[in-house]
Each structure stands twice: as structure tokens, then as C-alpha cells.
């Protein structure tokens, strides 16, 4: 199988805080990986390092064959020049807890903005694809609506359509349902379930243990900046090995 992402020996040091402590993580094309773990364990930082919202302190990251950041012995990590970095970032789509839609743009404009600006797609093409994607997330009627006119679940579905519009190699979801009322998390989870079934390569940081169990090909448990355990949903939820994972599961299940 083809590794689409390889992160080797990743360290991310913030002032006074070691957020990632020698993490090794790789993904195969088409895989759905769920990341679970207590607050502050480094889950968001790991995603943010993949799409370059944060720069790593040391280690190496290879995405789709391009090693865009690497450390030589004892040195800090060196990134590719910015232009190539932009290409790398365009290969990942990030979905945030708080949607982060552009408030002054309609839903369709939100979805089409990056393909036109970054990928230089023709406006008509981007709009046609944008409408398909809005349809796919169940919002074909909302193209002309503004984010303020939508519910939280609808906003998050627009954000997913916007992420997919760039045809990224990997979709990164950082607690996509945490800001939603329980009764509407289902509509967002069902879009993600559909993507997972279609073998979209995706990483999902989530507190929805039932959902992780159902969709994840692999589950990763992080604590204190480290990957403590990883395995199938059955390994992690039915047969946890470490005390830390057992404690975590008993606190959330
Ligand atoms: P999680 O997503 O698992 O809750 P994070 O990745 O957000 O955890 O955070 C990991 C650790 O890094 C935490 O201790 C957090 O306080 C720290 N951290 C995250 N972002 C920053 C930042 N920009 N500056 C300083 N510390 C940070
Ligand atoms: Mg987080």
C-alpha cells in the first residue's frame, strides 16, 4: 500500500510546552484515521503541522512523495521555500470546530473561492463543481445564502464542501461536531460517513467515540504529546492495553 503521508519523529515545542514529543504517524491512501485523547494531548497540533498552520521544531513530513520539511542532525527543521509550501497546503483540507467560513461571502462563493484564487480554475467550472459539492452535503438550496443564515450543522457542511472543492489529498477534521447541538451532529457525521465510505483519505479528531468506532480503519490514542496506542477500533475500544487509555475510555464512555 502507498503511504500518502509520513511524519517522522515530529517534535513541536511551544514556549514552555512540548506539544508533540517524537511522534511517528503515517497514512495510506483511502484510510480513515480517528484520533482520540484528552484535551491538551496534541491532537490539534498534529493536524496543524500536517497542513502547515504550525511549523514543526524537528522531524520530517512527506506528503504525496514531497518531503516538505526535514531536520538535519541536531538542527531545526527546514521547510521548502514558500511557493512549494503553498502547493503542499493546498493538498490538505482542514475542517475546524468553529467552521471559519467567510461571513461576507455566500455559501457558493465560500466553496469556490480557493479553487479560483489558488488553483486558477475558471469561475464557471468552480461554480459547477461547487454546486455539485453543496448538493453532495445536502445543501443544494443554500448556494446563495450567507453563513449567518445557516444553522451550525449547515455551516459545517458548507465548510466540508469548501474543503473538498480543492480536491485535497487528505481531509483533516478537528472536532468538527464539538460546537454543535447534539441533535444536529448527526447530519455532519453522515456526510463524513459518506466520505469515508468513498475512501476519502481522512483524519478525524473527535470526541464521538461511537462514530470513531464505526468509521475508523485505525484509531490513535494520544496523551501528553505522544501516540500512546494505536490499532483497529476493536483493539482500542475493546482491548485497551495502557492504563492511560483505560482511564481515558472510562472517563468518556
Ligand atoms: P488538543 O487538540 O489535544 O486539545 P493541542 O494540540 O491544542 O491539544 O495542544 C497541545 C498542547 O500545546 C497544549 O498544552 C496546549 O496548551 C499547547 N499549545 C497549543 N497551541 C499553542 C500555542 N499556539 N502556543 C503555546 N502553546 C500551545
Ligand atoms: Mg484540539
UniProtKB/TrEMBL annotation:
<keyword id="KW-0067">ATP-binding</keyword>
<dbReference type="GO" id="GO:0016887">
    <property type="term" value="F:ATP hydrolysis activity"/>
</dbReference>
<comment type="similarity">
    <text>Belongs to the ABC transporter superfamily.</text>
</comment>
<dbReference type="GO" id="GO:0005524">
    <property type="term" value="F:ATP binding"/>
</dbReference>
<dbReference type="InterPro" id="IPR030679">
    <property type="entry name" value="ABC_ATPase_HisP-typ"/>
</dbReference>
<dbReference type="InterPro" id="IPR027417">
    <property type="entry name" value="P-loop_NTPase"/>
</dbReference>
<keyword id="KW-0813">Transport</keyword>
<dbReference type="InterPro" id="IPR003593">
    <property type="entry name" value="AAA+_ATPase"/>
</dbReference>
<dbReference type="InterPro" id="IPR017871">
    <property type="entry name" value="ABC_transporter-like_CS"/>
</dbReference>
<dbReference type="InterPro" id="IPR003439">
    <property type="entry name" value="ABC_transporter-like_ATP-bd"/>
</dbReference>
<protein>
    <submittedName>
        <fullName>Amino acid ABC transporter ATP-binding protein</fullName>
    </submittedName>
</protein>
<keyword id="KW-0547">Nucleotide-binding</keyword>
<feature type="domain" description="ABC transporter">
    <location>
        <begin position="5"/>
        <end position="249"/>
    </location>
</feature>
<dbReference type="Pfam" id="PF00005">
    <property type="entry name" value="ABC_tran"/>
</dbReference>
<dbReference type="InterPro" id="IPR050086">
    <property type="entry name" value="MetN_ABC_transporter-like"/>
</dbReference>
<dbReference type="GO" id="GO:0015424">
    <property type="term" value="F:ABC-type amino acid transporter activity"/>
</dbReference>
